[in-house]
Protein backbone atom coordinates (compact mmCIF):
# COMPACT_ATOMS: atom_id res chain seq x y z
CA UNK A 1 0.00 0.00 0.00
CA UNK A 2 2.81 2.41 0.89
CA UNK A 3 4.51 1.60 -2.38
CA UNK A 4 1.42 2.48 -4.39
CA UNK A 5 1.09 5.68 -2.36
CA UNK A 6 4.70 6.64 -3.11
CA UNK A 7 4.19 6.02 -6.82
CA UNK A 8 0.97 8.02 -6.84
CA UNK A 9 2.64 10.82 -4.94
CA UNK A 10 5.59 10.77 -7.35
CA UNK A 11 3.40 10.81 -10.42
CA UNK A 12 0.83 13.20 -9.00
CA UNK A 13 3.48 15.83 -8.31
CA UNK A 14 3.51 16.40 -12.04
CA UNK A 15 -0.24 16.91 -12.26
CA UNK A 16 -0.09 20.23 -10.44
CA UNK A 17 3.28 21.42 -11.70
CA UNK A 18 3.25 24.22 -14.20
CA UNK A 19 5.48 23.82 -17.20
CA UNK A 20 7.23 26.72 -18.89
CA UNK A 21 8.56 26.02 -22.37
CA UNK A 22 12.26 26.80 -22.64
CA UNK A 23 14.61 26.34 -25.55
CA UNK A 24 17.43 24.50 -23.79
CA UNK A 25 20.54 23.90 -25.81
CA UNK A 26 21.24 20.26 -26.71
CA UNK A 27 24.34 20.27 -24.48
CA UNK A 28 22.32 21.24 -21.37
CA UNK A 29 19.73 18.55 -22.04
CA UNK A 30 22.41 15.93 -22.69
CA UNK A 31 24.21 16.77 -19.42
CA UNK A 32 20.98 16.57 -17.39
CA UNK A 33 20.04 13.26 -19.00
CA UNK A 34 23.49 11.84 -18.18
CA UNK A 35 23.14 12.86 -14.52
CA UNK A 36 19.69 11.28 -14.40
CA UNK A 37 20.69 7.94 -15.96
CA UNK A 38 20.58 4.83 -13.82
CA UNK A 39 18.65 3.57 -10.85
CA UNK A 40 17.17 5.91 -8.22
CA UNK A 41 15.80 4.33 -5.03
CA UNK A 42 12.93 5.84 -3.06
CA UNK A 43 14.44 7.38 0.07
CA UNK A 44 11.92 9.72 1.68
CA UNK A 45 8.97 12.01 1.21
CA UNK A 46 9.15 15.45 2.78
CA UNK A 47 5.81 17.11 3.53
CA UNK A 48 5.83 20.65 4.93
CA UNK A 49 9.46 20.12 6.03
CA UNK A 50 8.57 16.89 7.89
CA UNK A 51 10.50 13.90 6.57
CA UNK A 52 8.71 10.59 6.11
CA UNK A 53 11.42 7.96 5.49
CA UNK A 54 10.90 5.06 3.12
CA UNK A 55 10.23 1.99 5.24
CA UNK A 56 8.52 -0.58 3.06
CA UNK A 57 9.89 -4.14 2.62
CA UNK A 58 13.59 -3.22 2.82
CA UNK A 59 14.52 -6.86 3.50
CA UNK A 60 13.75 -7.48 -0.18
CA UNK A 61 15.07 -4.20 -1.55
CA UNK A 62 13.72 -0.72 -2.17
CA UNK A 63 11.30 0.35 -4.87
CA UNK A 64 13.07 2.33 -7.58
CA UNK A 65 12.85 4.19 -10.84
CA UNK A 66 15.39 3.57 -13.60
CA UNK A 67 16.20 6.08 -16.34
CA UNK A 68 17.79 4.48 -19.41
CA UNK A 69 20.02 6.12 -22.02
CA UNK A 70 17.50 5.34 -24.78
CA UNK A 71 15.00 7.79 -23.23
CA UNK A 72 12.88 5.14 -21.47
CA UNK A 73 12.19 4.65 -17.78
CA UNK A 74 10.68 2.00 -15.51
CA UNK A 75 9.07 2.42 -12.09
CA UNK A 76 9.73 -0.85 -10.24
CA UNK A 77 7.99 -1.96 -7.05
CA UNK A 78 9.17 -4.85 -4.88
CA UNK A 79 6.27 -7.19 -4.03
CA UNK A 80 6.95 -10.37 -2.07
CA UNK A 81 10.66 -9.95 -2.85
CA UNK A 82 9.92 -9.93 -6.59
CA UNK A 83 10.20 -6.94 -8.90
CA UNK A 84 7.01 -5.66 -10.50
CA UNK A 85 7.05 -2.97 -13.20
CA UNK A 86 4.46 -0.49 -11.99
CA UNK A 87 4.93 2.17 -14.69
CA UNK A 88 7.06 2.62 -17.75
CA UNK A 89 7.36 4.95 -20.70
CA UNK A 90 9.68 7.61 -22.06
CA UNK A 91 11.21 10.69 -20.45
CA UNK A 92 12.94 13.93 -21.27
CA UNK A 93 14.78 16.16 -18.85
CA UNK A 94 15.76 19.80 -18.71
CA UNK A 95 17.66 21.70 -16.06
CA UNK A 96 14.47 22.18 -14.00
CA UNK A 97 12.04 19.40 -15.00
CA UNK A 98 11.58 15.74 -15.85
CA UNK A 99 8.75 14.94 -18.26
CA UNK A 100 7.49 11.36 -18.02
CA UNK A 101 5.28 10.01 -20.78
CA UNK A 102 3.39 6.96 -19.58
CA UNK A 103 2.55 4.07 -21.88
CA UNK A 104 -1.02 5.41 -22.20
CA UNK A 105 0.45 8.71 -23.54
CA UNK A 106 -0.29 10.70 -20.36
CA UNK A 107 2.55 13.14 -19.65
CA UNK A 108 3.60 14.13 -16.14
CA UNK A 109 6.01 17.03 -15.58
CA UNK A 110 8.00 17.05 -12.34
CA UNK A 111 10.06 19.95 -10.94
CA UNK A 112 13.68 19.10 -10.10
CA UNK A 113 14.87 20.72 -6.86
CA UNK A 114 18.18 18.83 -6.70
CA UNK A 115 19.99 16.54 -9.12
CA UNK A 116 23.54 15.43 -8.50
CA UNK A 117 25.50 12.17 -8.44
CA UNK A 118 23.78 10.97 -5.25
CA UNK A 119 20.40 12.72 -4.87
CA UNK A 120 17.36 13.39 -7.03
CA UNK A 121 14.82 15.62 -5.30
CA UNK A 122 11.55 16.52 -6.98
CA UNK A 123 9.01 18.92 -5.54
CA UNK A 124 5.58 20.43 -5.88
CA UNK A 125 2.36 21.27 -4.11
CA UNK A 126 -0.48 18.84 -3.35
CA UNK A 127 -3.27 18.40 -0.82
CA UNK A 128 -1.39 15.61 0.96
CA UNK A 129 -3.60 15.42 4.06
CA UNK A 130 -6.84 16.04 2.14
CA UNK A 131 -7.77 19.10 4.22
CA UNK A 132 -8.48 21.28 1.18
CA UNK A 133 -5.14 23.12 1.34
CA UNK A 134 -2.04 22.27 -0.68
CA UNK A 135 1.12 21.30 1.16
CA UNK A 136 4.72 21.53 -0.04
CA UNK A 137 5.85 18.01 -0.99
CA UNK A 138 9.27 16.72 -1.96
CA UNK A 139 10.18 13.17 -3.00
CA UNK A 140 13.82 12.20 -2.46
CA UNK A 141 15.60 9.43 -4.36
CA UNK A 142 19.16 8.23 -3.81
CA UNK A 143 21.57 5.97 -5.69
CA UNK A 144 21.61 3.37 -2.89
Overview in brief:
The protein has one domain (2-142): Beta Barrel (Lipocalin), CATH 2.40.128. Helix content is 16%, strand content 48%.
Q: Determine the structural class based on helices, strands and strand pairing.
A: alpha+beta
CATH topology: Lipocalin
Instruction: Tell me the CATH architecture.
Output: Beta Barrel
Strand composition percent: over 45%
Main β-sheet description: 8 strands, antiparallel, barrel
Shape verdict: globular
Indicate the percent of residues in helices: 10-25%
**Roughly how many Å is the radius of gyration?**
15 Å
Order of strands side by side in the largest beta sheet?
A: 1-3-4-5-6-7-8-9
List low-confidence stretches. 1-8, 11-26
Number of helices: 2
CATH class: Mainly Beta
Into how many domains do the coordinates divide? 1
In whole angstroms, the N-to-C terminal distance is 22 Å
SSE string, helices as H and strands as E: HHEEEEEEEEE
- What is the mean predicted local confidence, pLDDT? 80
Amino acid sequence: MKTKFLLLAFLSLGLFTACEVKDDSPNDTQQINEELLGIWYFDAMIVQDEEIPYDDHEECGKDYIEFNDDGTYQQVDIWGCEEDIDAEGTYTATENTISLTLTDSETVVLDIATLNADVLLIEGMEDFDEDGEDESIQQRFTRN
